[in-house]
Amino acid sequence: MLSYRHSFHAGNHADVLKHTVQSLIIESLKEKDKPFLYLDTHAGAGRYQLGSEHAERTGEYLEG
Questions:
Q1: pLDDT of residue 1
Q2: pLDDT at 40 exceeding the cut of 90
Q3: Measured between alpha carbons, how far apart are the two ends of the chain, in Å?
Q4: Are 11 and 61 in contact (CB under 8 A)?
Q5: What's the 3-state SS for the chain?
Q6: In a 10 Å sphere around its CB, with 0-12 CB exposed, 13-18 middle and 19+ buried, how is residue 42 labelled?
Q7: Does a structural domain hold residue 50?
Q8: Please, how many CA atoms are within 13 Å of residue 63, restricted to the half-sphere of its CB?
Q9: In Gene Ontology terms, what is one molecular function of this protein (predicted)?
Q10: Domain range for residue 13?
Q11: Structurally, how many domains does the chain consist of?
Q12: Residue 57: which of 3, 16, 19, 5 has the closest Cα?
């Protein structure tokens, strides 16, 4: 089984793209009069330090 720890990948180009698209979709939904529910089923720790040992090990955030 593969293991994935987001602390090694936070802030990389895919992470930035995901959050940009997510923000645009939510802003679009907010323009409508109809209420909506946003439920994040894959939430991680919620905050990642880009200067941490994990992030520094891969350096992926430098391209994000």
A1: 57
A2: no
A3: 27
A4: yes
A5: CCCCCHHHCCCCHHHHHHHHHHHHHHHHHHCCCCCCCCCCCCCCCCCCCCCCHHHHHHCHHHHC
A6: exposed
A7: yes
A8: 7
A9: 23S rRNA (adenine(2030)-N(6))-methyltransferase activity
A10: 6-63
A11: 1
A12: 5
CA 64/CA 62 separation, integer angstroms:
6
Q: Residue 2's pLDDT band (boundaries 50, 70, 90)? A: confident
Whether the model pTM is above 0.85: no
Give a yes or no: residue 1 inside a domain.
no
- Judging by beta carbons within 10 Å of its beta carbon (0-12, 13-18, 19+), is residue 32 exposed, middle or buried? exposed
Domain assignment present for residue 41? The answer is yes
Residue 22 lies in a domain: yes
